[in-house]
Amino acid sequence: MKSYGSFFFLALALTLVGPGGGSSRADAVTADFSLGATGISVQPTTLYVAITLNNVSSRSASAVQIASIQIGSTHLIAKAPIRLGTIRSEGSSVVRATITRNSLNSGQTYPLIMSGRAQFASVNRAFRLTGSIRLPNAAPGEARAKSASSAPHRTKGAPYPHRSPSFDDEDNGSRWVVPTAPGAQRAATSANTSLKKARLGDPPAVTFNTNAGVGISGSTVAEPSGASGGGIVFMTSNWYAAYSTTGGSAFTQLDPTTIFPNDAIAYCCDQIVQYVPKINEFVWLLQGNNGDRLAAATPAQISASGGKAWTYWDLPSTIFGEPSLTGFDYPDLSVGNNYLYMSWDACNPGSPPGCDSGRMIVRAPLSEIQAGATLNMNYSNPSDSPMVWGGHVTQDTTDEVFWAGPNNNSNMRVFSWAESSSSYFWRDIGISAWDNNTLSSTTPDGLDWMQKLNGFPGNAVIGATRLANQIWFAWTAGTDSKLTQPHVEMVTLDRSNNFNKIQQVQVWNNSYAYGYPSLAAAECTNEIGMSFEYGGNGNYENHVVGFWGDYVAYITTNSNVGSTRFGDYVTIRQDPSKALSGRFFDAFGYGMDSTAPKTDTHYVVFGRNKCK
């Protein structure tokens, strides 16, 4: 989560820039609006488009309507005008429409013009906004991975001077919003998911070994990540890290700004942690100001050094073919049989011209991490996956990694990269329609705890795991006449049968909202564990965990205050302890305490007493 100014500056900076770049401008009479994130789904004869219109003025705009949309030589099919109603000052609305495709080609960039009218007070004003938009590549497709390398370093000279955090005006920013497929049919919903308090050792169906508050205050956008291994629990949140040698009963706080140098990479904000049993090391990915940084240490090294002894590799944007200072935001990690997989949003808002925008996947050999040697990495081209903006890679991924994003609300693009291959592949998979309208959920103190989620990561596929030949993807979806609260949408695909859909299910309850799903697979029970959040409709936002198919979410935190800047992810990992035999999970999530306000981050160990 890197700072580039306010959300609306972000939207202006990103103005309909496709993966290949682009720009927009507003005439003097249209300076009240700017163009924001877009999505475009290519059909045989039409294009489904979603375009964000931002009100950047200091006044609310009423009776907003879109008269025309033009991409290249093509025009809006739907009967104009498209009525958007009122857009508050510094607010936005998504325009979804169908455009004739004509001779427009996949992978090419075209000019975009959108015009309409709006009222400010009693004055009716016209606007005309111009930009550019790139059509996604055709599917199915493949691309050869590129190569990069990074030399190792070791922490020395610590502690470095502390740098204080500042999250006042930070937002990841979005480059993709989901188009709507006209007339798509909604999936049948399964039973709703109810709530129970998580109690140690109870109920018998799910055992809780640990539900420990970390006791460290942080940003309200906490983004907790962590793992356990070798007698150590290591976890992170925005602007701090912590480790425990007592199974989570007590944590020692670490300051990343004092462990690593304040150099060209430095440290910014987001962090992700994994433990790799094969090499007995924790791996720690930290978002920097100019790329990211990967660090590795054994449990013994963490314990002996007080968490300060690390081998690390700098990952500046330039080694991946991007201009210097290109933003690498919203990182993620996954462990395969022989590779560590890193991913991030490349070329986020505020990045320099010429950067390549989309989700980048990087793999590094585990053997080179263990040896503390130069990393010889392979990486994907970000613009191949613009619809995966904000998405995560599959956990428990063994010999092949997967990532996915919504082309529209009834189709998703699924990517795969086998460890034995130097190329990655993609294909489009049809699914049942889901609701991509506004995400909103209000806490008892009148705050919309999903306000930030609605902008980012939105409907990105942030929950992903592999269970044998089943690939599971999950994301936060909106509401309809049956599902009146935001919910988690989840799809299971069959890797062994051409990625055919096995099932599509929902985690929902019409008494409160669910969101921010994270998934992992239980090796012993062959089940999917979930770490996510619930709240709204008279409930504060809180962390919950559970197994898919139990239709029960167990509350681990006890919030007493709301927030409009909750997010952006929570975490779940399969617990590697031999004593737990692949039956338990380590989960990290958080609630909010009104004192400070304080982030109530929890480390939770839960699972089954026996394999099914």
What CATH first level of the largest domain would be assigned? Mainly Beta
Average pLDDT: 91
Number of distinct beta strands: 40
Number of helices: 5
CATH architecture descriptor of the largest domain: 6 Propeller
* Rg, Cα atoms, Å: 23 Å
Measured between the Cα atoms of the first and last residue, the distance is 40 Å
Shape: globular
* Portion in strands: over 45%
CATH topology of the largest domain: Neuraminidase
Helical fraction: under 10%
Number of domains: 2
The structural class is mainly beta
Note the main sheet.
Answer: 6 strands, antiparallel
As residue ranges, the low-confidence spans are 1-29
Helix and strand arrangement:
Layout: H1 7-14, E1 25-26, E2 33-42, E3 46-55, E4 61-71, E5 74-75, E6 82-87, E7 92-100, E8 109-120, E9 123-134, E10 141-144, E11 146-150, E12 152-154, E13 194-197, E14 207-213, E15 225-229, E16 232-237, E17 240-244, E18 252-254, H2 256-259, E19 271-276, E20 281-287, E21 292-297, H3 299-305, E22 311-315, E23 328-335, E24 339-346, E25 358-365, H4 366-371, E26 375-379, E27 400-408, E28 411-418, E29 423-430, H5 451-455, E30 463-467, E31 470-477, E32 487-494, E33 500-507, E34 513-522, E35 527-535, E36 542-547, E37 552-555, E38 571-574, E39 584-593, E40 598-607
Structure at a glance:
The chain is 5% helix and 45% strand. It has 612 residues and is mainly beta.
Provide a descriptive summary of the structure in words.
With 612 residues, this protein is mostly beta strands. It folds into two domains: 7-136, Immunoglobulins (Immunoglobulin-like, Sandwich); 149-161 and 190-607, Neuraminidase. Helices cover 5% and strands 45% of the residues. It is built from five helices and 40 strands. A hairpin with a 4-residue loop joins strand 39 and strand 40 (598-607). The longest helix has 8 residues, at 7-14. The protein starts with 6 loop residues before the first helix and ends in a 5-residue tail after the last strand.
